[in-house]
Design brief:
α2 links the parallel β2 and β3. The two termini are about 30 Å apart. The protein has helices spanning about 15-30, 50-80, 95-105, 120-125, 130-135, and strands spanning about 5-10, 30-40, 85-90, 110-115, 140-145. The protein is α/β, with parallel strands linked by helices and about 140 residues long. α3 (about 95-105) packs across α5 (about 130-135). It contains five helices and five strands; from the N terminus they run βαβαβαβααβ. Strands 3-2-1-4-5 form a five-stranded parallel beta sheet, sandwiched between helices.
Length: about 140
């Protein structure tokens, strides 16, 4: 039985295999379980009609189901094949805030996140997910290149 939990902010983008491989190796070394977290970004700044809101709610359910099947289920299978305990969470909202919140809820001892490498204007102005987590997380944040 695992003695601690590591949260892995997992996007399944190019290069995330290295992130998952690192998390698995680190969890084996430290006898930890992994909690894979995938956040679907959602903008609250759109003004929608009631009909559009209802349609959006339906689309969100489909997106959550698809993210579970396409992104998290294969990653969980890889972690299980490595002989580790694993669970997952999918949520909608702000990536940085929700990953930090889930880490607190799970009493995680570490957050592991991949370096995004984005050079977009948004990232330059508002900061990246790894930097945001490093600033607000209450546990150590490991940024995997």
């Amino acid at each position: 039985m695992a003695t601690e939990t590591f949260v892995v902010a997992y996007e399944n983008k190019e290069g995330d295999d290295g992130l998952l491989d690192y998390a698995i190796a680190r969890a084996k070394k430290d006898n930890a379980a992994l909690l894979l977290v995938h956040i679907l970004e959602w903008s609250p700044y759109k003004f929608l009609t009631p009909q559009e809101l209802e349609e959006r709610h339906g689309r969100r359910k489909e997106e959550l189901k698809r993210a579970q099947e396409v992104i998290l289920d294969p990653a969980m299978a890889k972690v299980k094949d490595a002989g580790l305990e694993v669970d997952c969470r999918i949520r909608y909202g702000s990536v940085v805030e929700l990953v930090a919140e889930i880490a607190t809820e799970a009493e995680a001892s570490m957050i592991i996140v991949g370096r995004s490498g984005t050079q977009s204007m948004t990232a330059r102005i508002f900061g990246s997910v790894p930097l945001g987590l490093a600033q607000i997380a209450t546990v150590p944040t490991v940024i995997v290149p």
